[in-house]
Amino acid sequence: MHMPVTIIGAGLGGLTLARVLHVHGIPVTVYESESSPTVRTQGGMLDIHDYNGQLALKAAGLMDEFHAIVLEGRQAMRVLDPDGTVLLDKADDGTGGRPEVQRGELRQILLDSLPAGTVRWGHKVSSTRALGSGRHEVTFADGGTVVTSLLVGADGAWSRVRPLLSTATPEYAGTSFVETYLFHADTRHPAAAKAVGGGMLIAPAPGREIFAHRESGDTLHTYVALTRPQDWFAAIDFTDAAAATARIAREFDGWAPELTALITDGDTAPVLRPQYALPTGHRWDRVPGVTLLGDAAHLAPPNGEGANLAMYDGAELGKALAAHPDDVEAALTEYEQAMFPRSTEVATFEGGEVRGTDSEYNTAQGLINMITEKGQ
Fold first, then answer.
1. What is the phi/psi pair of residue 55, to 5°?
2. 3-class state of residue 106 by DSSP
3. Which pTM value belongs to this model?
4. C-alpha to C-alpha distance for 180 and 189, rounded to whole angstroms
5. Please, are residues 8 and 153 in contact by the beta-carbon 8 Å criterion?
6. What share of the chain is helix, strand, coil (3-state, %, to 5)?
7. What confidence tens digit (pLDDT) does each residue in 206-220 have?
C-alpha cells in the first residue's frame, strides 16, 4: 500500500496506528494541535492490559521498550470504606496482567519509534470537508490545508473529523473529577501515603469517590469523583484554589482524615475535569476514505479501558490496512465491523452498574464483590 495515511491527533491511539503503519512500510503523517510533545503534562498512570493494550504494543514491536518503563509494584490495590477501614489489600504479585506505566513515558516511546517529521506539531484542525471519491480536505487554524485519500480521526472527545461520519456529540456523563497531587508523600503526607499503599487506592460511596495512585517519584495522584450537575461545579471558583479545595472537601465530611488529606493537603491547585460520553453503541455507516479511533469513535466515562482501547484500535486498523494493500475500503470495513461491538461490550459489561459513581452499589463492598466475580 502506497497511499499515504493522514492521522489527526498524536495521542496514544494515533501514535500506535502510525507506528504499526511504519512497521509495515506504509507512509503516514500525524497532525497534532499541540506545539510540541512537552507543551503539557500527559496525565498520570495507566494500567496496560494483556488483552488489548499490550497486544497493540506487540503489533507495534515495542514490548521491550514498554517493559523498561513499567513501575514495579503499582498493580497493588487497596479498597477502603469512608471511615478508613481497609476491606481489600491486594499485593502486586506480578501476575495481574495490567502493569502500570506513566502515560507520558508511554507516549514518548511511541514518538521515539517514528521517523523524524512524522508528527507535525502545531497543526490545530479548524474544519474538515468531503471532496468526493473518498478524498477529504483538512483545514488548520493557520489557514493551511491538506488533502488526503485516507483520513483517520484520532483527535479525541471533541473530534473535528467525527462530523464527516456522524452527527453525535459528547454529552456530560453526570460526574466530574477534581484532580490533585501530593509530592514527597512519604515524608510530607505520611498518613495519606500509608492509606494509599504501594499502588492504587479506591474509596467509593454513592455519589462520590476518592481514587488515588502512587506514581513515580513518591507522588500521590488523586482524582475525586462527584456526581453533580455541571452548574453545581460552575458555582465553584476554581481560580481560588483554597476555596475550591474547601468546597470539594465538604462533600467528604466525616470521612477518615487520611482520605480527606488527599484533597485538603494537595500540593497543586485542584483541577476540574468534567466527564463526557458519546451514546453507547455509537456507530456510523461506511464513508469512503475516513474513519475514527479511540475517544473520537467511542468516548465513554473512565472505566480503565480508554487508553487501551485507543491503542488497540490503532493497531487493528494498521494491521487491516497492511492486510488489504489494494483495497482500503475493505480494510476500513473490516476494522469498523470489529471495533463497533468491541467498544460497546466494554461500555456495557455485566456488573458495570456497580462502578457507576452515582449508583447505590458504589460501595467498597460492592466493588470487592465485582472484583471477585470478574476474577480480577
1. -65, -35
2. helix
3. 0.93
4. 13
5. yes
6. 35, 25, 40
7. 999 999 999 988 899
